[in-house]
Amino acid sequence: MQASVLTVSRSATHSFSKPNRDTIRLLAGLGVEGDAHAGETVKHRSRVKADPTQPNLRQVHLIHAELFDELDAKGFSVAPGAMGENITTRGIDLLSLPVGARLQIGPSAVVEVTGLRNPCIQIDRFQKGLMKAVLDRDSEGSLILKAGVMGVVLTGGEVRPNDPVSIILPPEPHRRLERV
To answer: Would 30 be classed as within a structural domain?
Structure first.
């Protein structure tokens, strides 16, 4: 199966969920045009409070639709955009990508993966018990964060549902994603 975009979402406010759109425009070095989290420096409230001059490594939030399938099997009903992601993909294991992996999305946009989304209490406020459902443990007992990946826009462009997504891996050695 070809990896592709399932939905695109954006919100001009710092709301938890983002409405789905027909298209979004990615802006190089900034993020999603018209989204509250777009900008060269951090826009997430907790990060702004800590240090508003930090570079924004969370310009674009991507979640794999397979997570929603997994959550559905656990009794949760989560639709694309509901967990605040800008791009919902299908057919790509986002969590296994290394730091610096580049995602060519549609005809021109390129997003570089910077790290894992750091799940917060808002997830449980959205649906009780959902926070625990987006966390797991590997065979060594290390925490697995499953709420998507974050990235920065290297090359802008329009992104729409059904756009293909291809992966360009960075040179080895690869670094595992950590929360950003």
So the answer is: yes
Residue 117, judged by CB atoms within 10 A of its CB (0-12, 13-18, 19+), counts as buried
Q: Mean pLDDT of successive 10-residue segments in the chain (180 residues)?
A: 94 96 98 97 87 95 98 97 98 97 98 94 92 93 95 98 98 96
Q: Which two tokens stand for residue 94?
A: 């986002």
- Range of 148's domain? 4-168
We report the CATH number of the domain holding residue 61 as: 2.40.33.20
What phi and psi, each to the nearest 5 degrees, are found at residue 126? -70, -50
d(CA 15, CA 76) in angstroms, rounded, equals 20
| 180 part of a folded domain | no
Q: 177 lies in a domain? A: no
SS (H, E, C) 7-24: EEECCCCCCCCCCEECCE
